[in-house]
Amino acid sequence: MRLLSATLAIAWKDVRLEVRSRDTVVSALIFGLIVVVVFNFGLNRSPGSLAPVAPGLLWVAYGFVGVLAMNRAFARELEQGALDGLLAAPVSRDAVFLGKMFGTLSFMLVIEAVLLPVFAVMLDLPTLSPVLGLIILLATIGFATVGTFFAAIAAQTRSREILLPVLFFPVIVPVIIAAVEATDLVLQGGPMLAVWTRWLPLLVVFDALFLVICPWIFGYVFEG
Amino acid sequence: MLTAALTIVDGYLIFVVAPTDQVLGHIQRIFYIHVPISILSFLGFLVCAVAGIGYLIRRGEMWDRVAHASAEVGVVFVTLALITGVIWARPVWGVWWTWEPRLTTTLILWLIYVAYLMIRHYAPTPQQGRAWSAVVGIIGFVDVPIVYYSVQWWRSIHPVQVIGPEAADDALEPIMARILVFSLIAVLALFTYLLLERVALRGAEDAVSAIRRQGNYE
Q1: Which residues of A touch B (CB under 8 A)?
Q2: pLDDT by residue (tens digit) across A196-223?
Q3: Is B168 inside any structural domain?
Q4: Looking at CB atoms within 10 Å, which of A7, A22, A135, B21 has the fewest?
Q5: Which residue of B has its CA nearest to A202?
Q6: What tens digit of pLDDT does each residue of B119-174 get?
Q7: So where are chain A's domains?
Q8: How far is A4 from chain B (nearest CA, A)?
Q9: φ, ψ for residue A58 (rounded to 5)?
């Protein structure tokens, strides 16, 4: 109970900060749009639809935007020694981790929800279904868990902007693969068996595993 | 000494004793190096993860030295495995690189452990570097099996375009198998030698920096 209230308090603090300043969400939205525009020049060699590569493009954009949001989540804590205050608070490290993780998760879900219809128009996506929402939710939980963990490490170094993606993307490869494949199957509207028997379980297993491991070893991130 | 002797004998076996492969030709000899170093790089990362857990629990400097040394040797071995793989793939498969599950997993493995070495370098204090890299080593080791299965599933949906390295295994002559086992032992000796030397060197490095710190205070 204490864990839950402390977690929610930390997440709520981040959400309120963001609602007042709006700097992360707005810049992340614009950046997500720019990713699609730039990829359009890289991939769209003949005039026509980008629909065949849309799932990959969608998740590459979500990944980049996510890294941006995660970097901000911890960079903000470094200003004026806020991180020391957070760590000195009489709550467990699990609550700190889960609080930051839920904060990041909510930003990312908002950004993704706004970007999705924009992408649907620009990339000419055929259908939007509730299953797609489930895929996005599960994949984003994986992103936010691993990303928050590595952002806590990267934020304490000199080169946090480069270190986070270098740590984050190789580890997150299974989530990207599962999300892209599942999104592809959903958008094609064909047989959904592989989504239910393969890709969604993979996402669930990944999320569950890292939701156990990351809080467990999170305390070691703040040594020295 | 033993390592040097084993390595030289291994070289003799590979280049003189081993029969030339009927289908693949001389290039097949790279197999005797490629397979053992791939296997032993996995051993390196296993040692790294175990030593990382040991460090987080017991806090001995020795645990950290072993973890660091095994990660470094592991990265060197994976790099060599990737390079020999690319050299072998070109004449046999007709391409330098293909997104086959094992290759892809190995490349991601390489990326994770390069990040492991980077994190040590970027950590503000040595103590942070030790704890952070132990944590990254554990996450990396948990992640690799998931990467492997996801890449395999990913590939199984798309058309498979190449024959995996299994093709060579099927056609393995008894003499070839014996030389492979000998190579494995020789590379294991090399691995152990490099690991021990690197651990000793890390100990010396730590001693030097301790002396230097002491000098600064005086």
Answers
A1: 146, 149, 153, 156-159, 163, 166-167, 169-171, 173-174, 177-178, 181, 194, 198-199, 202, 205-206, 209-210, 213-214, 217, 220-221, 223-224
A2: 888 899 999 999 999 999 998 898 888 7
A3: no
A4: A22
A5: B150
A6: 988 888 888 889 999 999 999 998 888 888 888 887 765 444 444 444 444 556 67
A7: 2-222
A8: 25
A9: -60, -45
Q: CB of B78 within 8 Å of any CB in chain A? A: no
What is the pLDDT, as a whole number, of residue B15? 73
User: Which of chain B's residues have a Cβ under 8 Å away from the Cβ of A174?
Assistant: 143, 146-147, 149-150
Residue B30 domain flag: no
Of the residues A157, A159, A212, the best mutation for testing chain B's interface (the one with the most B CB atoms within 10 Å of its CB) is A157
A11, A102 Cβ separation under 8 angstroms = yes
Question: Quick check: B22 pLDDT over 80?
Answer: no
How far apart are alpha carbons A176 and A66 in whole angstroms? 12
Total number of domains constituting chain B: 1
Its domain, for residue B53, covers 40-161+173-200
Q: For chain A, what is the HEC assignment?
A: CHHHHHHHHHHHHHHHHHHHHCHHHHHHHHHHHHHHHHHHHHHCCCCCCCHHHHHHHHHHHHHHHHHHHHHHHHHHHHHHHHHHHHHHCCCCHHHHHHHHHHHHHHHHHHHHHHHHHHHHHHCCCCCCCHHHHHHHHHHHHHHHHHHHHHHHHHCCCCCHHHHHHHHHHHHHHHHHHHHHHHHHHHHHCCCCHHHHHHHHHHHHHHHHHHHHHHHHHHHHHHCC
Answer left, alpha or beta for residue B76, where phi above 0 means left and psi between -120 and 50 means alpha. alpha
A chain contacts of residue B123, beta-carbon cutoff 8 Å: 156-157
The reply to whether B167 falls in a domain is no
Domain membership of residue B83 (yes or no) is yes
